Amino acid sequence: MIHQGFLKIRILAIFFVGIFFFLFIIGRALQLQLIPNRKLAELAKRQYRTAITLFPKRGTIYDRNMNELAVSRKVGSLFANPNKIKAPKYVARRLSALTGISDYKIYQKIKSKKSFVWIERLLGDSVTQRIKEHPMEGIGILDEYKRFYPNQELAGQLLGVVGIDSQGIEGLEYSHDDVLFGKKSSIKMIRDALGRPISFDETLFVEPQEGVSLILSIEQSLQFMIEKELELAVIKFQARRGAAMVQDVRTGEILAMANYPFFNPNRFFSGGRSHWKNAALTDAFEPGSTFKVILSALALEEGISPSERFFCENGFYRVNREAAIREAENHKYGWLSFSDILKFSSNIGAAKIASQAGKIAFSRKILEFGFGRKTGIDAPGESPGIVRPYKEWGLVDLSNIAFGQGISVTAIQLVSAISAIANGGRLMRPFIVKKKIDPKMGEVIETKPQFMAQVISPEVARRLTRMLVRVTEQGGTGFTAAMNEYKVAGKTGTAQKPDLQGRGYLSDKYISSFLGFFPADHPHYAIFVMIDEPKKNYYAAEVAAPLFKQIAILTAQLFPPLSKLVSQMKSQKKAQKKKETDFHDISERESAIKWDKMPNLRGKSMYDVLKFGREAGINIVVRGSGIAVDQCRDEGSLIEVGQSCMVTFKAQTP
Amino acid sequence: MNLMKRKSIAYRSLQRAEHILYKQKRSLTVDRTAVFFGILKLFLLGCFLTGIVLFYVWSRVEVVRLNYKILEVTKEERRHFMKNERLKIELATLSSPSRLSSMATERFHLKNPKHEQIIYMK
Fold this sequence. Notes:
Chain A is an alpha+beta fold and 654 residues long.
């Protein structure tokens, strides 16, 4: 028999233990519910909330004439909610048939326990359409932006590429990613106990902020034609690669920047990653004789006259016991004037000029022209090149640097330096992004040309230009770069490539280049061309100079220098005056009589109409483009020299 | 007790008063116009209230209908916008210099103009 007192104690003990646990549970519940706890709140949120990040439309990249170079547009991305898929194997098979992706790959993704998985992103329009036509439980399409480059490989390295989440990873896309990208937006959705999102259609109304658009200084047509010429030259000389660049000397803006082999950003994973880089900015190389231009600028500034003569040692000059300099192509020059040293590209003459000017002055001038540091161009990956401090220069180094060995420079540094000479000694910062357009406010931010330094006096620049014009004259190394229409100032460069494994230079590998500008009397455009490791021929006069000429012709056609327009206008006015006054010439009178009445211009091309205008001496005002459909005066009506006539053109539709 | 007494006295006096009225046998006149207007007022009030309720219901239905319409139009607008974007890219691709150049030379057998053939327009 249990003692009653003991029983009471036991009951009480159990009662108090029960009370204690009850109070503990109540206390814990109060603690969880009433006292804020960030960690627990996060855990709860994760259970009933889901967020989808929406990427904004990336800003468009245009050329200087508003032609699209890089555009984003929405395409479908395939996602799944595996929690809602009842027969994953069947769904995987069906999706595989619709998309062409292997069913194993799809199955691996949709068998997970997650509530959201991407199956394939940035699909083609036809695939998206097929999936929309065959809806499946737990499978959906979400719109995402994809980058398109409509011109394929045009300026590929310069534009760069974007990744799958629209983030810039190379080129201008990378360097201007912060403005091009826009602002992400995230839609938060509450999901039910089964993980189903509630109010999914919210995606329709939440638009992330579009990125800023860029207008480049590049001209699409010029870029294309230069790329084509560069490709032809590289193939013709069986070279490893090539680069070409055109810069407006007055502002510093880059009109074209081409690299070969090309790179197509639409298919950036195919082909080597080495093709991605913009070699015109990233690769430093020994410039060779083009660097004599910098030495010549210094020499003129130091008071050496272009007619001052130097003995060129008949082709062999021993600098010290170990080193000797030879001329290219084994030329044996005797006495040459400073101007001829540049014209014939004498290495020995250049070395002598450098030693006369001194290494401190030469080093200072090199740095003043912007070598050894980045130019500050608004494109990524620029290399500063290598300019060793003058204290480390020996006599051999000074002589070598005089003709462009023992120093590393980039293409953009060279073109900026020659632009400074063409621009009266004013060094401008090179730039590519001409304008930025904010899509929200419509605000346009224009890049202002930035003056960096007065590197030489305008007088020195003029004298140096005259010397550089002689290089492209008969007998000069750059004669093949000369144009019929304009005077060209420039310098050839045939540089041996250094042996990166051992010492010295490789005997069979060269960089052939040409650096110049035109028109020499009113400089507008500076051009640099470079052909790396040409096999068939390596002399710049035969490899790079003709390419320079081609590029200069194309540039002049698309951007006619002012002098050309003025001369054309003058000749037109002259022809008109002649028609008005000169009636002694029978053929002229006949020509005037020929166009005394208005012909039927309808159906004629713009070229024919303008030709008629020139011949008849009347001013044609063009409206529209295509084929002439309307003219201001009727056929057969009398016309007089100097009259204006509006002709309307319309594009022909097939 | 007093209270009970007082209540019964009051009740009796009331009965007596009614009795007097009936005894007089005077006809009870009813103002029909007032009744009519009263009913009319009630009817109008009823109609008004029903109208308000119906209007409210109609407005809600209309809001929902218009919302659906806005949604549909928005979707339509987005469809057109996306089509427009696609066509813009197509246009840019079709008018790319490389395509135009190859078409000009291969299909139409055109040649690059010589420098002197180019006429610059104002």
